[in-house]
Amino acid sequence: MSHLLKPYKIDKKKLTDLIDELCKEYRVIAPIRDGKKILFEEVKSGKDAMLGREALLHFTNSQKSPKELFFPQCDCLFSYEGKGSDLKLKEPEAPDKKTVMFGMRPCDARSVEMLDRVFLQEGREDPNYKRRRDNTIILTIGCTKPGSTCFCTSMNGGPFSVEGGDAIFTDIGDSFVVEAHTIKGKDLLGEQLSVEADDESLKKAAEIRLKASDLIKSKVNAKHASEKPMLELFKSPIWDTVHEKCLGCGVCTFFCPTCSCFDVVDEKTADGGDRIRIWDPCTFPLYTKQASGFNPRPTGKERIRQRMLHKVKYTTTSYGEMSCVGCGRCVLNCPVNLDIRQVINTLAGGSGA
Ligand code: SF4
Ligand code: SF4
């Protein structure tokens, strides 16, 4: 077993074979190209994944975050049949195959740890989330070409951070150095890979990792902002104006890998129904509207303040860490360019990103 402690190496030409092998035993999710977009989807073979070879090896990040794998946009919590007290409940079926999530970016893997804090709280584990999480092995690919809107290094992460993932691939040219950092990752790599990384490859990988952080040019003074007193942040005059251009469309929360808010609705049929959990953005007016008609966040000002301070301050107070990984998706996709980096820097007492 000693070789399991050493990193492996895999030739890029052998990735197809690796994914073929994984597909025999696991459900494999990998980045594929769909027009101009990169999406994470199930692939049935290495060829499937390699059709998106360009995507698999040279993408900045997927348009949507891969959080859907664990926390789908619509999730049936249970179904029921019958009426009144004569109800039969049916739990969702457990997935039969283990899943390998291949090619997640390190920022998104970190975001899974943040979702864990919400859905795997001791004694209050969410069964649907837990089942999917336990059933999944996350293989990340470190970022050698980060995007211009990536700011993970300002959010306690980095292009090769390992939190949340089970093993990480480092692109060293013709091949990858592959290192496991959990038991799940070690077991999987031990099953699938056999070539140990030589010293020269390890040296190259270490140099690439070191250089990658310097490629992140977008800097945000998040630490300073998060250390400011709660009341000072809450009462900041920035909230009087920053919301003005927000359309309340919810795009920023839908794309965000760490946003975890949801609503629960019943969809009824003639003889039963489904209880469904659906994503619900805090930028929507209905999110906090109460049955009486009162809304404690009646305007965009309160709603944008909630979104921003939740990321920067509230989770820092609750969990000791901000709930933004700096993936840049909200920056890229907001139709009116409301940029969280500028908001954080202004809160910190500086200017834009
Ligand atoms: S994406 Fe932009 S416009 Fe839409 S809710 Fe978020 S901040 Fe507002
Ligand atoms: S708030 Fe924006 S940058 Fe931060 S994790 Fe969410 S989408 Fe990414």
Description:
By secondary structure, the chain is an alpha/beta fold. It folds into two domains: 2-72 and 94-214, no CATH class; 222-262 and 280-348, no CATH class. Helix content is 35%, strand content 21%. It has helices at 15-25, 46-51, 53-57, 106-119, 127-134, 183-192, 199-214, 222-227, 230-234, 238-242, 251-255, 300-319, 329-333, 340-348; strands at residues 8-11, 27-34, 37-43, 74-83, 86-90, 99-104, 136-141, 167-171, 175-180, 262-269, 272-279. A seven-stranded mixed sheet has the order 1-9-8-7-6-2-3. A four-stranded antiparallel sheet has the order 5-4-11-10, with no helix packed on it. It is globular and about 65 Å long. The N and C termini lie far apart (47 Å). The mean pLDDT is 93. The structure holds iron/sulfur cluster (2 copies). One iron/sulfur cluster is lined by residues 246-252, 283, 334-336, 338.
Layout of secondary structure:
Layout: E1 8-11, H1 15-25, E2 27-34, E3 37-43, H2 46-51, H3 53-57, E4 74-83, E5 86-90, E6 99-104, H4 106-119, H5 127-134, E7 136-141, E8 167-171, E9 175-180, H6 183-192, H7 199-214, H8 222-227, H9 230-234, H10 238-242, H11 251-255, E10 262-269, E11 272-279, H12 300-319, H13 329-333, H14 340-348
Parallel strand pairs: 2-6, 6-7, 7-8
Antiparallel strand pairs: 1-9, 2-3, 4-5, 4-11, 8-9, 10-11
